[in-house]
Records
---
Amino acid sequence: MVTVTLVVLWLASGGCIPGNDSDMVRSGQPEGSTPGGSGATSATPTSVGASTLGRVVFIGTSLTAGYGLVDQSVRFTDRIQARVDSAGFPFEIVNAGVSGDTSADGLRKISWRLRGPVSVLVIELGGNDGLRGLPVDEMRGNLQAVMDSARTHHPAVRLVLAGMEACPNLGPTYSAEFRSVFTELARENDAVLIPFLLEGVAGSPELNQVDGIRPTVEGHTFVAETVWGYLEPVLRDISGKGEDQP
């Protein structure tokens, strides 16, 4: 009940202003990022050789891109890279988040994002669809097509889907249908579901930027912990490391 209340407060206090996430400001490109201005950047692993790396690609919105952060090395994806290195997993985290992207935008770009090997695809799309009140069925179709494309390009890819919440002012029917898309798609596609990406962050002013939508540095720490809880078992399984192995 507390989580639901916080989500409603977050959405009602500025998290549901149409167009708030439509500026298309791309993720920064520090040294070593992908050339060509695609908005996809990759952290440089420190614990394993580059030739042994699998790739975990995050596609998403400003939440993934780290919009508003002065230092983009503190994004939740970069914190996850640090956890990956610490655990000794042979994976490179690739951040392909683009501010403003809807599920349709993500679908249009998916072939580019899937160039090169991809061991795990983490999908953080749909939040902007909810902000704009776009049809739920269209979002469902776009997300399904993203998953289909991932499996066409990389049949063995593991899928992780990050759930989001819709604006309560769009009505209970829309909100319920929006939420169910993530649950149903995860089940139908054998994907790991993160029920709510912003669990523990939404509704907390100290964990969000002044827009009330995007996490602060501290907020990204919370998001990283949430994502890691679902991603770590996937990486452990792919790596062949049992629970009792370091």
Note: Confidence is low (pLDDT under 50) at residues 1-15, 17-51.
---
Amino acid sequence: MARFGEFAPFIREGLREQTNAQVVIAPWSEHIIAAYAPTLVNAGVKAACVAFDKSVPPAPTAWRWRLAGLLLGITGALGLMFYLPEIHPRLARIRRFIVPGVLLLALVLTLWPWVGVNPQLRRIPAHLLVLIIGWLALRGACKLRMPRWTVAVATGILAACCFAVFWVTGNFLVGLLMAILAISTLLLLPSLAVARIATRGGSRRDGDIAMAIFASYVIGQFMPLFY
């Protein structure tokens, strides 16, 4: 179990009565990253091997090649993000779409062994919802002459407040909102970098649109859904 998962309070109640199984809790994990927590992965592999009377296999090494491919892909994407819009004036006029699009394509092609980032039809409503909210927040910050990072700060403060309430009450809906806000805060950080690159040689509007597009895809891709 991930200690900071939304279902942790409910699962914890059942674990108090559990007497015929080992309980393993990842101390710093949330439900999205639980699949990558070494504590849980090692315990799961060990339990599976014991159940089938097999020896525990050595740790895999293919992740090194995958990580190298990821780094190379992101490096190439960054180069295209900086220089592709400068090749032709027509490309420069659509830099707001080129910059986030190139990086998203690179992520889809290189992250699939670890994280599912391929487009999913059922997540389109979430993408559109985050796109609208993100765009309105960025336009509001622009009207108030506030920097873009204030949007990330606002979501971070709201996530902290929801975490405090969730810690005290254990309310599921508050925990779900906390998870969404925490994910949004984390993913808004690379979105700010995307906006910065799009603004280079362009306008603030280019950066805002690029940030809204990138943030809407990554946040909509990883926010919890129940359909």
Note: The radius of gyration is 21 Å.
---
Amino acid sequence: MIWKRNQPDKEQVYQQLRGEMLDYTDYANKWCNENDEPLVPVPETPNLTSTQYRKEMLPYTGEQVYVRRGVARQLGIAAALLAIRDDKLKLEVCYGYRALEIQRQNFEKQKALLSERYSGEELLAATHRLVAMPEVAGHPAGAAVDIRIVKRDKPLNFGTDIWEFVPDSYTFSPYVSKKARRNRILLRSAMIAADFAPYDGEWWHFSYGDKEWAQYYGEPFARYGQVEFSINPAGDDSRGDVHSLSN
């Protein structure tokens, strides 16, 4: 009974985990030295695949998932590292580039939902934990991916579904099974080995080259800023319209 009384409750644990995550204020002022890399479809290889699950992106990218060319290269490295461990494992990219317009809509919608609980800077921080602030978000830069590992076309057990926005989706939540924790660490280790930065508020979210990545690794500036992008009417792969919006 004494042992139980001394244990922190769940909300205390979640609060501690949140305190260890990067906040948007940590990297909002990072400079972006945009390198103008094109957005390209995630390549299909024996250990790397992508599925466009979000219909909101169909007018912008069709049924393919797009990322910056450098991000696609690093995804290939992460997939190869997984294959060394088990050649039946496959990295599935479920989301890549997100139109900035959609990011703004999602952010404002989430902020409105939280406005009864928070205000001012607390409201922005709480919203950002669920939907990144558009000005610093990695998805509109083509730099962030939502990702999971599948085996024989079935997702591994990660304790929660992808895009299940609950505290147990925090990467290091102690309230998921041992198997789920092992799978989260497997995914995180492969992605970090390929130079991605994790966002530990969502076990599925990683980025390469954006402001959060630059802050995580102590880089002086980000490589990719927000862009406006859509495939051209002919559906000509990476030759879509890209307009940089970075500083």
Note: DSSP finds nine helices and twelve strands in the chain.
